[in-house]
Structure prediction request, 633 residues.
Amino acid sequence: MMLRISNLREYETAYRKSVEEPENFWSEIAASFTWKKSWNKVVTWNFESPEVKWFEGGQLNITENCLDRHLSTHGDKTAIIWEPNNPSEKGRTLTYRELHEQVCMFSNVLLKNGAKKGDRICIYMPMVPEATIAMLACARIGAIHSVVFAGFSAQSLSDRIQDSDCSMVVTSDGAYRGAKEIPIKEVVDEALRVCPTVQRVIMLERTGANVRIDAERDRLWKEEMGKVDARHEAETMEAEDMLFILYTSGSTGKPKGVVHTCGGYMVYTAYTFQNVFQHRPEDIYWCTADVGWITGHSYIVYGPLLSGATTLMFEGIPTWPDAGRFWQTVDKHQVSVFYTAPTAIRALEAAGLDYVRPYTLNSLRVLGSVGEPINEEAWHWYHEHIGKGNCPIVDTWWQTETGGILISPLAGITPLKPSYATLPLPGIQPLLVDANGKEITGNGVEGNLCIRYPWPSILRTTYGNHERCRTNYFATYPGLYFTGDGCKRDEQGYYRITGRVDDVMNVSGHRIGTAEVEDAINQHPDVVESAVVGYPHAIKGQGIYAYVICTKEHENVDMLREEIKAVVNRVIGPIAKPDKIQIVTGLPKTRSGKIMRRILRKVAEGDVNNLGDTTTLLDPAVVDAIRDGAISG
Ligand code: WT7
Prediction:
């Protein structure tokens, strides 16, 4: 049996053991999975290279643990409930047996179309069960999936496909998102013009949109599934073989491909899913993320399926047809565990209680929050109006790079404190350091959040560029994994994440690098230079504020702003569009040419009378001009 924690004393015992005897601790947990061959060594690691290996010598296939293993005991249990975008369209459910069969069939489709173990396969799909089937089929044949969120632009998609030399793309004709229909296949066609490594596209028909089919390259999901049989023996994988690549933004350069491997990721996502949400077999579990993000990978697909849970996949958006959609869906499917992002909570709170009142919400037992700091106001609204005061809220802090939740309450066990992620999970050794890397000990302190010991689902590398992994996460504070987050530890030892301390923004729970947005803005022909910062935004958490220098004076500044937004939309996607664009004639630079973002952040925040020391600037006068032209409100 998996080590299940059911009270605070057990948590403390498990935590102590995980620190004192980490190898015994994790090998006992790992032993509850199906391995084709047991491991020789639980962990080997150093944070200098860095190199981390878990369960080396062990062999497994994660999909046998997600699927095959459950068939004899609960093959007829619902694995996936699918709720479509349009509430009047009929949904679907798949039992574990049906999901297993679909995954085996699609594994055969991939093989028949030339995919091999170790190949990279890009998945660019809406939130339909086939997205999960495609991910699991990749894992089953030993191909490495790279899921790209279907809101990203053709250019973002082709960047990601090229970076990992994908040989295949799995996609759909179109996608429904609220009242909109999105031409997914068109985006893929455009992206693939510059992706010569892609030999094959498999397209699911979702909307019936009229799309161009390349007779050489493209195949239809339905037709291919009709040609294969339903038996497939899962490929044998080494514990440290790559399971997937997922691209995420950093403070510099293009998004990087975070790499997770089979064994450690499996053990950690299942362990954390079961303990954080205190999973019960009868739960109906709903995580509202998209499978294009790590939350979808770990807590829609792998964690729940490894645990034999019923996981709900929702295709739509929270505000369509109206702002009651989440609550209607909770009642309709009798959801007991509901996991969403603060930005959604704030948006639905702003829509008003009239959208909540028609629903009982009495199936709910546990609420979760993820993606950004949850402000106290939103926490209380969620607790009172959605949880009716009797559902614990697990505020789960983690990252794409961590693979699973690192700091979080255990539902109903850890005492809660609004806006605090509370305590580290077993196996996680957080510490706070100051700017010089010196550990800040004791309680009632604040610093940069680091982790001193590996856990099974820590990233192993960034695809194709190990040095980037080293410099990004392991070089700032030698010997430690640096998260990029600032953090408080209160008098009780509870952790509260305060937000990024690097040039990464968190917009509606999406991670966006300032440098990425600047590069996109600079593609506008009239733009000379730009600087982007985040600023507090009531719904999104952070909004995007861009300062832009142009080659010439524009008569119609509003039109210029719209053009710049359109460029960003085309280069990255709608999630990265700046909220505010201020045209400036100069940027505050130091004598060495470095932009002083501190000043730009202050102006964007509206704190123009508190700009601090500006004497080191090359030309202090630019600050006055920027202050005078600031966009408020
Ligand atoms: C960054 C990671 C991992 C899930 C989705 C986001 C912020 C995430 C919390 C939380 C405060 C949070 C951090 C982190 N973040 N969860 N509960 N409280 N901040 O994954 O895109 O890799 O972003 O999101 O700043 O570093 P991601």
Q: What stands out?
A: The domain at 510-628 is CATH 3.30.300.30 (GMP Synthetase; Chain A, domain 3). Residues 248, 294-295, 369-373, 395-400, 421, 483-485, 497, 499-500, 506, 511 surround WT7 (CB under 6 Å).
